[in-house]
Write a structure and sequence with these properties.
Number of strands of chain B: 20
CATH topology of the largest domain in chain B: Rossmann fold
Strand content of chain B: 15-25%
Distance between the termini of chain A: 21 Å
Oligomer: heterodimer
Number of strands of chain A: 2
Strand order of the largest sheet of chain A: 1-2
CATH superfamily of the largest domain in chain B: P-loop containing nucleotide triphosphate hydrolases
Structural class of chain A: mainly alpha
Number of helices of chain B: 18
Shape of chain A: globular
Largest interface: A-B, 24 and 27 residues
Largest sheet of chain A: 2 strands, antiparallel
Amino acid sequence: MNRYFRELSVTGALVLLLAVLAIWAPHFYQPQPLLSRFTAQTPALILTIGMTLVMIVRQIDISVGAQFGVCAVVAGLISASGAPLIVALAAALAAGAIMGALNGVLIAWMGLPSIVVSLATMVTWAELLRLFQQGKFINLPANVQWFGLSQSAGQQGLIFGSVLLLAGVSWLLKNRSGGRHIYAVGSDAEAARLAGINPKLTTFTVFVIMGTLAGLAAVLNMVQSPQVDPKCGVALELRAIAAAVVGGVAVSGGRGRLWGSFAGLLLLATINPALTFLHVEAYWEKAIQGLVILLAVIADGLRSRRQTS
Amino acid sequence: MNPAPGTLPTPPVSPGGPPLFRLSQVTKSFGAVRALRNVSFELAPGEVHALLGENGAGKSTLIKVITGAHQPDGGLLEFEGREVSHLTPTRARQLGIACIYQQPALFPDLSVAENIGLRLEPPGSFSRVNWQQRHQQARELLTRIGAAIDPETEVRALSMPEQQLVEIACALGSGAKLVVMDEPTASLTRTEQELLFGVVRDLRASGVGVIYISHRLEEIFALADRVTVLRDGESVATRSVRDADGTSTLTEAELIRMMVGREVAAIYPPRTATFGQTVLGIDNLSCAAGGVREVSLEVRAGEVFGLAGLVGAGRTELARVLFGITPADSGTIRLNGHTIRVGNPQEAVEHGVAYVPEDRRRHGVILPLPIAHNMTMAIHRRFFPGTWLRFGREESLASEFIQKLGIKAYGPAAPGGSLSGGNQQKVSLARWLATEPRLLILDEPTQGVDVGAKSEIHKIIRDLAAEGLAVLMISSDLPEVLGMSDRIGIMQGGRLVHVLDGATATADAVMTAALAAA
């Protein structure tokens, strides 16, 4: 019970919010709008998976929004040229992996602080993208949207696929030696090194996974609309970090679970529609989101103070 | 100005005058560990009083009490005849107590003058800094101690001894009446030492009381007026170094006996009589970065080779070289007769070397993780085929070690942080035994462990050796080294200076070798 306290309390808060909506605003549960809202969260969900891993290993990556933008444009241009979607996907994954690897080399092997490195790469990718694309949208062929399926089939596919991925990564994190290494390095990199684990390789791998997931997220975003907006990644990194923090991933590393981050993402994403349905002015959204994040950080702070004392 | 070393005039101590500083019956505990027990000690103005003791005898705690960093649990502190009831670092500084630590505590990005200025006149937050005055003051102080340092240099650019001189300048400038020096010569060259001795003699001549801590006995004879020996947190004796005529009243042998003079109280498990083949052989092993110089030694199967020496003598550094944390520059390491290369800890583990590090809190057990996870950490590749974790297998391995080593925990899922120090040490040991090593390196295996767990760990070590493991045990606990080792190697300044037979070695012999001038 205590071990899962943070994850359970976030899930509890989410369930409470959903219950409030069920009583006072049952319109929230109309199937089609609900499906659309959930679908819109799938790219952020994919990024949150990666960000959770990055934070467990005691790093941060604020360049994921920019990576996402670059991958979206890469995938968009390839799709626009008429190539099959699988080619666009492969290219986006590769582009993401390369950008992640660059972060990884600088952070893991050169030992530079991840916040500075990813800030620099964020600005670099964002500016290069602006220079290259000049803000122009890319129009996609008709068969790209919803994989050429019907809208609801496409939406269900996206949701099913990304939740399956979350469950899969979560399972691997628990059952693979590498997953254990991520927690060990995030808890105490020097102790892990003395136990024969390679902290540099572990950290590097996590950043490559993060980049690859940014590529995947960009493609999942692309198939939801007829166009690609080159600015689609702006501020996405903040949503991923916020979801992980709210979900109980410790900024100090070594602790966190993917389902916690998932609950955190859904909680933050439900605040806005909840306000609308409960007839509260939508201006409150950001303030309430901020408050939720603050509560989560305070809870972690109290917890770690209790542990050290 | 300064008299030549060894020919000191009698100190200007006014007998009968009030002492500058006095501690009576001071006690200090950390949890269950009694660091200081009824320590009494006094310092006259214009006296150099040396504090001597083994590693862990309580010197650091005593210094911290004197500088107000620790509050004693009981006892009396008097400064210039008046009782000081609640000494804080700020209060100590106001009284004129200054301390020069081994590692200078200066701001590396500020200039020498700024550092001195900050120390001497904590300015109001918004008051204007008079730079000219600051530089002038710094220059005067540095000249007074004979240090050729430009006050405008950044402290970062100074060498360690130069930084120490800046510390001394600070102490001098603050008008300190009592200066504590904690092993000030540890990193100094010969000439720098002479310079420092001159400064200490000047301080003494101007009526400042100096508490001087050093492991080098010859320095104590050259500088000190009196010596107080600490042992196991108690003040054993205070003796004058010289009588009124300046003739020596104390010998090195006497000092060493006072430092180590105690019975080996604990009962150690009996030694094994037979040894197998040579497991570890090292020849002329050196590592400049780690401070290990041309060490050669052999450890046989079934043997416990104890490594004694002072802190900083290169023992942990040698272990780190053997485990590939700081790889060797030159020399060879042989394991079971084969020359091996150890470039990183993974390679060391693959060759059958295990290292239970000194500071288990920082480098051993990962506290938030369950002890089962901690135990399998070093054997993932071998223990989990295809690196798929098998929780059942892991749990039974953990249960086995919990039973075998007598670890007190509610189960394999208990987080490492929930265990006591001795049990954490056993978890750390279990992790390395799980690798089925041929050579086990233990670094301070019973540091901070209570007495009961300590003898359990000793028994485990002896059993492991009896099973054919070669054990290299680093320890600063002299009775432990004497009681556990089949042979004892003594290190000093990165070299292995002496090897003694464990069964016949005495505390005096080990201490003499460890303290002998290089």
